[in-house]
Amino acid sequence: MPGDLREGRIVIVGASLAGLRAAEKLREEGFTGSLTVVGDEPHPPYDRPPLSKQVLLGMSAAGTTGLPMRRDPDADWRLGVRATGLDPVGRQVLLADGESLPYDRLLVATGTRARPWPQREQAALDGVFTLRTRDDAGRLAERLAAGPRRVLVIGAGFTGSEIASACRERGIEVTVAERGTAPLVGALGGTLAKLAAGLQRAHGVDLRCGVTVTALRGDKAGRFTGANLSDGSHIDADVCVIALGAVRNVEWLADSGLAAGPHGVACDAGCRAFDMYGIVTDDIFVAGDVSRFPHPLFDYQMLSLEHWGNAVAQAEVAAHNMVSPGPPRRPHLAVPVFWSSQFGVNIKSVGVPTYSDQVVIAQGSLSERRLVAVYGYRGRITAAVTVNMAKWLEYYQELIETAAPFPPTPGAADGHPLVTEFALPSDVPDPQGLSHGPTVALTGHLPDRRLAVVRPAG
Q1: Which positions fall inside the FAD/NAD(P)-binding domain (predicted)?
Q2: How far, in Å, are 117, 125, 215 from residue 120 at the CA level?
């Protein structure tokens, strides 16, 4: 590796938000060497949040969601080609087209993909969709514009709920099937998820909770016609959207020796990847949805996040550290923030609501669907969720960052007493019992891979 970290060869695997922002930041930090960005999609980097909102509503075409470049990163873009392997000893990324890319430093930013329907033949029926990519959104928007009789959405996390909201806004009948007790329960806990269930039903959604879809049905022409549910009921529909959460794109790292598994690639707070023995690497960094990193506010557990703001912040920290020697390196300690617009309300969250045992409605009104819910764990504030009251998010973020006591002091925010006099259980479910996955998850202290150390006898 060259002595000057601003020179040499850097490869970024992942050409989405984190990859682009890291490339820009590397140049901003004075990196003058060769920069290569690899992406498995043929499109330049684009924005994903509009795909489940404006694109499905027909307000924007899928092809108009490209991310603006804040500066030209002067990179060699290898788009439409997949990374298939990593040789960390020889410092090479292996590509699906047979090429090998040498590197001095590598950034892994491969993100996630939509979890597919497990039955391949059923998933291939005409009318069955997932929503993750620009192409997915374009195809689904076209089908919704054709005016289907009914849409079945399997999974009631944020993506599934936003799809259902778009369908109702278009006047399309929609059924939502969720294995858990309520929509968004994996992100917000059971107490606040009751509000999400009420919202969906108030907007005419046929919401089925506590059930699973056992089979997708099709006709002889291979068109989707409906589904069978675990309670014995049947749904007739001509479009089905699978919204079962995300799969982290780590398969290409299987033989790399890195701590990569179902929860992502483990790294330290400086975005340096761990190997599977827990030793930190000096030349491989991780950023975005594919990463797992320790956070001091949450007992140094490994945090996995799937949201826009984290991808940007972590990519910039990773880029800075890739071209900085030891002492000037920075930690990525951003508090998770995510948002969603659905069924006429704006939901924003700061912290980790599922890292909680109690919740209190601190401001606003459940009946008016305008409130702030504050979450606590073992006597300190760990998260806050606002519904149409986003201006208070910054206030509660400071309370989280300073480990303020839970429940918050009555009247501290706006001079009014707490809406709920006593804290309620936050009712965080076991993720195994959900159709959708959480967008923010604490995944323990250890890398995913478990090693059996075999010692010779004698």
Answers
A1: 9-315
A2: 7, 9, 11
